[in-house]
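README, section 4: Worked example with a bound small molecule

Sections 1 through 3 covered apo chains. Here we extend the same pipeline to holo records, where the ligand is supplied as SMILES alongside the sequence. The molecule in this example is zinc ion. Nothing else about the input changes; the structure line simply encodes the ligand pose together with the chain.
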Amino acid sequence: MAISPSCKKCNKVIESENINVAADTAYCSECHFIFRLSDLLGTRADSSPKENPLRLPPTMNFTLEKTGESSFVITQIRTGSKLGAVGILFFAGFWNLFLVVWTGLALTASVFFALFSLPFWAAGIYLLYTGINQLTEKQIILIDYDGITVKKQRKFNPVNLFLRFSEIGSVSFEAPSILKTSTPVISQRGVRVKIPTIIHNGGMVQFFETALDAEKNWAVEFLSYIVEGKQRGL
Ligand SMILES: [Zn+2]
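The generated complex, written as structure tokens:
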């Protein structure tokens, strides 16, 4: 097939050795981004090859960057929780403003009376903490020769965890460990939500909590494929 797609970012013509028709991918050796071949050619092939886990993320909420022979960077560039975070911060603003007024009035009566506001202050501060963390959060998964790094960049309690492939048991779906994540997980109709999880020697780390189901499936498939390949010594 005589095809010569060019890179969306730098317009460089992508060499045939960097094109995988079966996987529908084209890799630009100049800027290291992987594109959907059908996107570049404008021939939107609808066959998503499920047997090839190295396919691209299913939505534009993630980027997959190839940074070396067997190294990748997955970045969650958009999360569905931003709007929720703004809502939480709005609510926190009203809540705390009300508390300032209430506590001020109570103090004019007695200090003892004002103490009743303490649990409400704790809740108000927790709301602020949650809202700011959700708003500032950006998750990145780095895959390199030796292992996987899970990064959660956010204002409070950021995560930067490197795991060697030899330490990793599996990548799978697990129930949320609410206490470890900044983002509350909403379960629909009481169904336990499953979160992408890397199980390792020292416990487990969860990621992409707020992603869509298709995105979570993709991430787990992709990382499982990498981990299993590494552990077979590929
Ligand atoms: Zn390029």
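What to look for in the output: DSSP finds five helices and eleven strands in the chain. The radius of gyration is 23 Å.

Section 5 describes how to batch many such records.
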